[in-house]
């Protein structure tokens, strides 16, 4: 085995060992020996900024007389993953559903893209789309209600 073959083999083995979480590796390939130690990954943690001390006790704000939005009854449709909400299969196409549209259990309501994978969200029940909470292209969180079916 010449030095180039040994270096190539050692490089491949060291890469695999590091990928599997090894902290040190010692290799003996014929007349060649290699030893490597890997430092554990260092993650920077941002320091929390200290909040300034209040000078005086805060006074409660007067309650605003704002009418509450009427609660929409029905079955909420949550996002099963974090990703980007799309109302249609492509920008040129019509949305899968619109408010007021009748849907059947299993109908595709929208798509959530996560890591270049398009995940269809299907209707959990028969009914009518009562409200859609997101706009096309908006980010959606896990468990966030996408729409409500009545």
Automatic annotation (TrEMBL):
The keyword Transmembrane does not apply. CDD domains: biotinyl_domain. GO terms for molecular function: acetyl-CoA carboxylase activity. Pathway: Lipid metabolism; fatty acid biosynthesis. GO terms for cellular component: acetyl-CoA carboxylase complex. InterPro entries: AcCoA_biotinCC, Biotin_BS, Biotin_Carboxyl_Carrier/Decarb, Biotin_lipoyl, Single_hybrid_motif. It comes from Bittarella massiliensis. Residues 54-76 are annotated as: Disordered. This is Biotin carboxyl carrier protein of acetyl-CoA carboxylase. Residues 74-150 form the Lipoyl-binding domain. Residues 62-71 have a biased composition (Low complexity). GO terms for biological process: fatty acid biosynthetic process. It comes from the Bacteria. This protein is a component of the acetyl coenzyme A carboxylase complex; first, biotin carboxylase catalyzes the carboxylation of the carrier protein and then the transcarboxylase transfers the carboxyl group to form malonyl-CoA.
